[in-house]
Structures are given as C-alpha cells and as structure tokens.
C-alpha cells in the first residue's frame, strides 16, 4: 500500500475523501427516511422487519407490491420517489466506485495498467448509474 506524506496529493483527493465519509452518513439518513415513511404509510402494522428494510432502502414498486400491502403502487410511482431513488443510486455509486478506485491505485503499480483499470472503473460506474436510472424511471 502506498502512503502519501501530508504535503502530497491534491485538493480533489481531499474532497473525494471527505465525500466518501459524508456520503456514508447521508446514505444512512436516506435509508432511515425510507423506513420511517414505510412505517408512517402503514407498514409497521402489516409488514415484518426485513420487508420494511427492503421497502425503505429499495423503493422499487415490485418490492412494495410483493409485500401484500394494498394500493401502494401510486405512493411509490410519483416523481419524488424516482428522484429519491436516483439520488440514492448516484451517491451510493460514487461512494462505492471511489472506494474501488482507491483499491485499484493501491494494488496496480504500472502506469498503463493503472490508467486502464481506472478507465474500467469509470465505465462500470457509468453502466451502473445508467442501468439503475433505467430501472428507476422506466420500470416504475
């Protein structure tokens, strides 16, 4: 593993490091908000705990439809929940792929392989965000 001295690095690296820490906390709040909404919408009386977590962290309509709660599709197919899901997806993807980029930098030492590996990480990031966007906006 490579260690940098305090004087090395760039401001972008610092901001990515800070984003990773803050995004982890933010994702906890996003998930907690989904669980609270699931409970306020009647889930606490009709669902077990794993179903509530699935409903809170993955607000996709077929997860909610499979939970045997009547008439929940209109609540989850509006624009707010689509934007909510897209924000959650984007923050989680940036958080995860930034961590993957750091792992690649730690273990790949040849410059050309490092460039190729970082390019692959970026392409995978675009694919995950694009596929997630299709699921969120087209399959609701």
Describe the structure.
The protein has 140 residues and is an all-alpha fold. Helices cover 79% and strands 0% of the residues. It has helices at 11-46, 49-57, 61-65, 73-76, 79-107, 111-138. Helix 1 crosses helix 2, helix 1 (11-46) crosses helix 5 and helix 5 (79-107) packs antiparallel against helix 6 (111-138). The longest helix is centred in the first third of the chain and has 36 residues, at 11-46. The model has no long low-confidence stretch (mean pLDDT 80).
Shape: elongated
Derived from helix and strand composition plus strand pairing, the structural class reads mainly alpha
Rg (C-alpha, Å): 19 Å
On the 0-100 scale, what is the average pLDDT?
Answer: 80
Distance between the termini: 44 Å
Unreliable parts: none
Q: Report the biggest beta sheet as strand number plus sense, adding barrel if it closes.
A: none
Work out the oligomeric state of the chains in this entry: single chain
Encode the helix/strand succession as letters.
Answer: HHHHHH
Strand content: under 5%
Determine the number of helices (DSSP H or I, runs of at least 4 residues). 6
């Amino acid at each position: 593993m490579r260690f940098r001295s305090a004087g090395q690095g760039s401001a972008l690296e610092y901001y990515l490091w800070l984003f990773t820490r803050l995004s982890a906390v933010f994702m906890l709040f996003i998930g907690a908000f989904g669980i609270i909404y699931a409970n306020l919408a009647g889930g606490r009386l009709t669902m077990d705990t794993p179903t509530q977590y699935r409903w809170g962290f993955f607000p996709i309509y077929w997860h909610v439809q499979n939970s045997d709660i009547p008439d929940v599709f209109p609540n989850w197919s509006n624009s707010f929940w689509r934007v909510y899901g897209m924000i959650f997806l984007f923050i989680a993807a940036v958080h995860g792929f930034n961590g993957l980029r750091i792992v690649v930098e730690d273990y790949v030492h040849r410059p050309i392989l490092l460039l190729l590996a970082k390019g692959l990480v970026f392409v995978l990031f675009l694919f995950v965000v694009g596929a997630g966007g299709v699921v969120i906006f087209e399959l609701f």
